[in-house]
Amino acid sequence: MPNHRTVFNHIGLCVSDRDRSRRFYEGLLGFQFWWDLDLPDEGTAALLQLDGPIGVRATYLVRDAFVLELIDYSKREVKAGHRRVMDEVGLTHMSLSVSDLAGVLAQVESFGGSVVEGATSAHFAMIRDPDGQLIELLPDSYLANLPPKP
Hints:
alpha/beta, four-stranded mixed sheet, 8 strands, 2,3-Dihydroxybiphenyl 1,2-Dioxygenase, domain 1, 2 domains
């Protein structure tokens, strides 16, 4: 056990269209806007290991204790990567519980996302946000079956 304190801060997600992503996460999944931050290229380019100019704007959204940082770039073109799969090393997905799984699934496309074909049932679903990020949806009844957190 480390002898220092560690506190969760946020998860960063590069997006191709900040407004479209805000509409998806706020409108469909109930995230709330917290704040925007325009970061100076000096220092930020080194932190992100990108050649300048970059023009980073970070938009922070909150859902419960989870903070999602939408990162977009005004001075560079973002690149769409390949479709990540669940056995690829690295961050695979985020998971959210919803009170009306069928109702949310019915709205995914109208908010710019997509439902992953063959990956839905009454007990779970996998969707993609407008940029293809995987999101697992579970009914909120799932929460009652979890063991207590340490």
